Amino acid sequence: MRPYILFHFVFFFIQHGFSQTVEIQGQLKVSTVNQNNSVNDVVIRNIDGTIGKRDASTIGGLPSMGIVLSDVENNSSLLNAGYTNIGILNTQSANAGSGGNIYGEWGGMTLTDAPSARFGHTAVWTGDHMLIWGGLVNTGGAFKPSLDTWTPMTSNNAPSARSSHTAVWTGSHMLIWGGTVGSSETNTGGSYNFSTDSWTPLAMLHVPSPRRGHTAIWTGTEMIIWGGINTGVRTNTGARYDPATDTWTPLTTLNAPSARYSHTAVWTGTEMIIWGGLSSTTINTGGRYNPVTDTWTPLTTLNAPSARYSHTAIWTGTEMIVWGGMASPDKVNTGGRYNPTTDTWVTTSTINAPSPRSDQSGVWTGNEMIIWGGTNITNERTDTGGRYNPSTDIWFTTSTVNAPSSRSFHSSVWSGSELLVWGGSTSSMSLNTGGRYNPVIPGYSSFVPTNFYLYKKN
Q: What pLDDT, on a 0 to 100 scale, did the predictor assign at position 77?
């Protein structure tokens, strides 16, 4: 008998007899056949690509967490077999074409005029360029993916060489702040004007105390700095920087999260959400900061992910997704989705998730979180990753074919169509190589929307 397991899930399609190729969220290609199927027939695509069929009455023996897709909203056969309808998959039917794959594809990145090898640097996306800066040096470069070219950045009036700093993109300038300079932390920074290739120092009046391991987000008008560590002392202080006036405004500490570093921060459009990090122990608490009212609101810890640091956090538009990182006693591949409207957490699936790791990178594509690289539980660097779709709670593995070499402490940005990875380190050396990952399946001429109902085995 051919195996039915596809990518650690069991997918079955219960349909009424038509021929098409189904694209689940643009990820999983499953071809159905033109048979006179009854509602009790299950059409499947085996691992080797062949099509098979079996009766729905035989699927009751699937293991827990097995997944069944049906075009029937209330499928009595599935419900009676111990399945629960957990939602709708907005799928696509491919009308023509072939040659796609669910893993995505990696492309190369030129080394000509690339910045020198480094780690602990920062990267921002301008809309058409990725800007790399810092990482124990005060040089950088601008990568244009449409031309596969690098352009060096001036170091005239640039901030001092540093690592573990932060960077945000304002729409016209890159703001650099904080980090480690030599053997001590700094509270200096600079504003880089990409159009003129020039640097301007940031004001020092009311600036936050020196620190590294802090976070920075851009609100649309201000950069908000929070948390971090300085000479072994953690802090829960921060400030808002307005580049239009070159002024700093301290944040209130009333009801602020406890002091920490190596935490994460995301911007929701109205609030900054802080979560996790390291104090004297790992932390799984957090807070929401409203810059308009200068107030903090604690996050619930009910169903929150386990305490961790050096994890990933992204904002989807409605939720913050936290994943991976260093927990106790080791690295994890667990995570959670936080909804600030309801102040609730939902655990993310670990089925087919990337292996446990820390110091990975993560981006949001508009419908998926892509995790890549990092350091695994044996302290080896990895070139593996995964794509997580929060609407289906499903992971898919990223390709390793032509992927950049294994690394951690690298940078990544989302260009609107590709994940751009650059720099980082192995266990023995810094890197100045990178890669471009395209998660979209190539080879299809047109798509027609199709809905399937998702059932999970209890």
A: 78
Mean of pLDDT over the chain = 85
134 with 10, same domain: the answer is: no
Residues 417 and 351 grouped into a single domain: yes
The model's pLDDT over 245-262, given as tens digits with 9 standing for 90+, comes to 999 999 999 999 999 999
Residue 168 and residue 238: Cα distance in Å, rounded?
A: 16
CATH code: domain of residue 170: 2.120.10.80
Assess whether pLDDT exceeds 60 at residue 410.
Answer: yes
AA identity, residue 341: T
Residue of 32 and 418 predicted with greater confidence = 418
Task: Report the predicted TM-score, pTM, of the whole model to 2 decimal places.
Answer: 0.79
Sequence letter at residue 347 = T
Integer Cα distance of 48 and 415 in angstroms: 34
- Nearest-CA neighbor of 7 among 72, 101, 98? 101
Name the 3-class secondary structure at 138: coil
Residue 55: pLDDT above 80? no
Residues 389 and 319: beta-carbon distance below 8 Å: no
Alpha helices (H) in 156-246, listed in sequence order: none
Shared domain for 120 and 153, answered yes or no, is yes
Is residue 129 helix, strand or coil? Answer: coil
Decide: 67 and 455 in contact? Cβ < 8 Å.
yes
Q: How many domains does the chain have?
A: 2
Q: Which of 285, 275, 351 is nearest to 320 (CA)?
A: 275
Shared domain for 73 and 148, answered yes or no, is no
Structure tokens at 440: 């979209």
180 shares a domain with 57: no
Residue the block writes with tokens 């979180």: 369
Residues 82-136: pLDDT tens digits? 888 877 665 444 433 444 456 889 999 999 999 999 999 999 999 999 999 999 9
Q: Indicate if 39 and 120 belong to the same structural domain.
A: no
Q: What range does the domain containing 452 cover?
A: 5-100+444-457
What is the C-alpha separation between 318 and 289, in angstroms, rounded? 16
Report the 10 Å Cβ neighbour count for 247. Answer: 16
